[in-house]
Design brief:
This protein has 291 residues and is mostly beta strands. It is built from two helices and eleven strands, in the order H-E-E-H-E-E-E-E-E-E-E-E-E.
Length: 291
């Protein structure tokens, strides 16, 4: 690794070192946050199946208030899991180089904000940023309570840029909800595929792995692995709306990993990797309009 120094009062600092320093600072801040907020970024957030009216705009936002993840460290197959160590698998959703845009997107790990537009009464387009990615999706209504149907159901598909994988990420799924006055139970089921990064803090014998400058962080060696992950997620929750202008959502979002694959030319060594297996997010959100 190359290091450079510069005296105060000399020529202005170059953008490269400044970018690297800022990237490192953001990465350290995010790493410390993820020690207390374990688990990876969610693939979806709880939302109702209501579409934005034709020609109208809508907004929505969600935050992962609490997360948990579990997996294996060094479990190359089912037989090896008897010798492997089960670990709490944190997010550590940080790019491995000094790409400032990717690092900023990664800092948006627990929060997502979306803008939506009603193309027709049955078709909605949207764009979102957060959960370490940026991109857009389309939602198609199948049945709609506003048209007298007993419930609302929409199909959705989206494509995104993943800051962690520095490449594509996508998801497809279905949203369903049913109104009971101001309350609307909801369920969202999605399959996603794209890069994710998971970490485990592995305690070592003795106290050599304790960081004296960070006494509130747990002792251990941080091990993390990036891989393309196929995930099945389901959001189970409820929406609450007292007016047509806005609705609030709350739910739990469990997920299981269906498979791992290497990213690009990187070699995924299952015998040494942190293999995330399942997780859970508790999420709250807001969407406008309501119903």
């Amino acid at each position: 690794m190359r290091h450079s120094t510069q005296r105060l009062g000399s020529k202005p600092l170059a953008w490269g070192p400044l970018r690297t320093a800022l990237s490192m600072a953001l990465s350290m801040a995010l790493s410390m946050a993820l020690v207390t907020l374990t688990g990876c970024s969610p693939a979806i957030g709880p939302r109702t199946a209501d579409l934005v009216p034709a020609g109208g705009f809508g907004v929505s936002a969600g935050v992962a208030a609490w997360s948990f993840g579990t997996g294996w460290l060094g479990a190359e197959n089912e037989a090896a899991r008897g010798r492997a160590r089960r670990e709490s698998t944190g997010g550590m959703e940080v790019p491995e180089d000094d790409a400032i845009v990717d690092t900023v997107l990664s800092v948006a790990l627990p929060l997502e904000v979306a803008l939506r537009y009603g193309l027709t009464s049955w078709l909605e387009a949207g764009a979102s940023v957060g959960f370490q990615r940026v991109g857009g999706e389309a939602r198609i209504g199948l049945v709609d309570e506003d048209r007298g149907h007993p419930l609302s159901v929409t199909l959705s598909g989206g494509g995104y840029y993943s800051a962690v994988g520095q490449g594509p990420w996508g998801r497809v799924g279905v949203d369903a909800s049913m109104r009971f006055g101001s309350l609307a139970p909801l369920v969202n089921v999605y399959v996603s595929h794209g890069a994710s990064s998971h970490s485990a803090i592995v305690d070592q014998p003795g106290d050599e792995d304790c960081q004296e400058e960070a006494p509130f962080m747990p002792c251990g060696v941080l091990v993390f692995t990036r891989s393309n992950e196929t995930r099945l997620s389901a959001a189970l929750g409820v929406g609450f709306s007292k007016s047509p202008e806005v609705a609030f959502t709350f739910g739990v979002v469990p997920h299981v990993v269906l498979g791992h694959a290497s990213i690009g030319g990187e070699r995924l060594d299952p015998g040494r990797a942190v293999l995330h297996e399942a997780g859970l997010h508790v999420m709250v959100g807001v969407q406008a309009p309501g119903w």
